[in-house]
Write a structure and sequence with these properties.
Layout: H1 5-16, E1 21-22, H2 26-34, E2 39-45, H3 49-62, E3 71-76, H4 81-89, E4 100-105, E5 108-113, H5 123-138
Helix pairs in contact: 2-4, 3-5
């Protein structure tokens, strides 16, 4: 049974208020995954303490980086269950965990942060990891 929307809406708004689009249905996920150009960040949001204390604040801090993804999307584990299941189906070789963070470049998964690399770290450490990945995968190529 999904969590009450009264409980999760403030947690969702932490991301939607900074530009994230919610993927609420399997069709939303498929449409997102079918976009082939550009860069994207997908956050598997959650009600747990590490989502509140490390993941969402870490993502917010990381997005202040000069290099950043073109698109920001999120699914909420425990609330948008079918959308979450569909999103996870795109990387079946990675065990499901929430929160977690996936980075894509031209629809290819290039970086993944599972829960165990979030829960034992600070928001600043999570942000530093993401900024490094943004710089590595999303930085514009220098003009020649």
């Amino acid at each position: 049974m999904p969590y009450s929307s009264l409980m999760v809406n403030p947690m969702k708004e932490e991301l939607t208020s900074i530009g994230f689009q919610e993927l609420l249905t399997p069709e939303d996920v498929d449409a997102f995954m079918s976009e082939r150009e550009g860069t994207a960040l997908l956050v598997f949001n959650s009600v747990c303490g590490c989502a509140a204390g490390q993941a969402r604040p870490g993502v917010h801090l990381a997005l202040q980086n000069e290099s950043r993804p073109d698109r920001l999307v999120t699914v909420f584990a425990g609330q948008d269950t079918e959308a979450t299941k569909q999103a996870r189906s795109y990387f079946e070789d990675i065990p499901p965990s929430s929160p977690s963070i996936a980075l894509f470049k031209n629809s290819e998964l290039v970086y993944f942060v599972p829960r165990h690399r979030i829960e034992s770290r600070s928001a600043e450490e999570v942000a530093a990891d993401l900024k490094s990945a943004f710089d590595r995968y999303f930085a514009a190529a220098p003009a020649s």
